[in-house]
Design a protein that fits this description.
Radius of gyration: 20 Å
CATH topology of the largest domain: D-amino Acid Aminotransferase, Chain A, domain 1
Shape: globular
Strand content: 25-35%
Largest sheet: 5 strands, antiparallel
Structural class: alpha+beta
Order of helices and strands: EHEHEHEHHEHEEHEEEEHEEHH
Strand order of the largest sheet: 11-10-9-12-13
CATH architecture of the largest domain: 2-Layer Sandwich
Length: 292
């Protein structure tokens, strides 16, 4: 007996990690439990246009668990419904764009200043402009690459010399500077959202690093978010047009602040911490959307 719906799970061909493989396997099982079939393909499998057209004919939906936005757009242009959509993925993949869109909707975040554009092979030789940024944000401050995951491209500049060194090291990569929330150092909340619902949440704490990410040595414990925290994460979902996401929130003296929004969260750590299978909630959500 054939499955009611056939779906495509698109992942990155060049990202090889045991936790991601566990995630993909779990999504496949979750789909099967809902009378849905889910086939895994990589972005490298879908390079020729005829493969994209074939996928759009053969599948009812696509879970796009990658950041290859151009491919996602091509699948959408071929009339294949994607979860998440290409616009949401693109905005979440650039932290400066995320800040701009969320701030436009009045969603509270740490004060952020995108750094001026520079060209390849030029970088930031003249960093005099940074005095104005430091005057607004103060020290220490957080400097982030606009693209990056697992906290690996997030740095703490303790003084002007440290900030200038970071700028010169990073050449022409897009960067932003952000006010350091001292009371939240090494601590954040991860709210895993599916649609309007917070399916699972973690409090992440790292006693040895200002970044709370578990991949940087942090540890997670199950957390019951407040109504205000869920409402804040829900506002992010609506503003960015997301179907599912991991919303990272800082507990500041001013109230909860959105730190980042992840359009394709790595949820194995959440399962290990909370026992909640986010993949099951994702497949339930997709099933409801397809029959509605």
């Amino acid at each position: 007996m054939s499955a009611r719906f056939k779906g495509l799970l698109v992942v990155n061909a060049f990202l090889n990690s045991g936790k991601f493989e566990i995630l993909y396997e779990r999504l496949g099982k979750n789909a099967s439990d809902k009378d849905m079939e889910l086939r895994l393909m990589t972005n490298a499998d879908l390079v020729p246009e005829d493969k994209v057209a074939q996928a759009a004919r053969e599948y009812d939906f696509c879970i796009f668990w990658d950041k290859d936005v151009r491919l996602c757009r091509r699948l959408e242009k071929a009339n294949l419904r994607t979860f998440n959509n290409s616009r949401a993925i693109a905005v979440c993949d650039n932290k400066a764009d995320t800040y701009e869109v969320l701030s436009g909707a009045g969603i509270p975040q740490p004060l952020t200043v995108p750094l001026p554009f520079t060209y390849d092979n030029l970088g930031y030789e003249d960093v005099a402009f940074f005095d104005d940024i430091a005057g607004v944000l103060g020290y220490p401050m957080v400097i982030k690459e606009c693209r990056g995951s697992f906290g690996a491209q997030v740095y703490l500049a303790k003084d002007p010399a440290g900030a200038c060194e970071l700028l010169r090291e990073h050449g022409s990569r897009e960067l932003l500077a952000q006010r350091f929330i001292g009371e939240a150092a090494g601590r954040d909340l991860r709210l895993n959202m599916v649609g309007d619902e917070c399916v699972a949440a973690m409090l992440r704490v790292n006693e040895k690093d200002f970044r709370a990410n578990i991949s940087n040595g942090g540890r997670g414990t199950a957390y019951e978010p407040s109504d205000a925290e869920v409402a804040l994460a829900r506002s992010c979902m609506h503003t960015l047009g997301l179907d599912f996401a991991g919303v990272d929130i800082l507990e500041s003296a001013e109230g909860p602040l959105v730190c980042e929004v992840n359009s394709n969260p790595q949820f194995v750590s959440t399962y290990e911490c909370t026992g909640v299978d986010l993949g099951e909630a994702v497949m339930d959500y997709i099933y409801r959307e397809l029959i509605s």
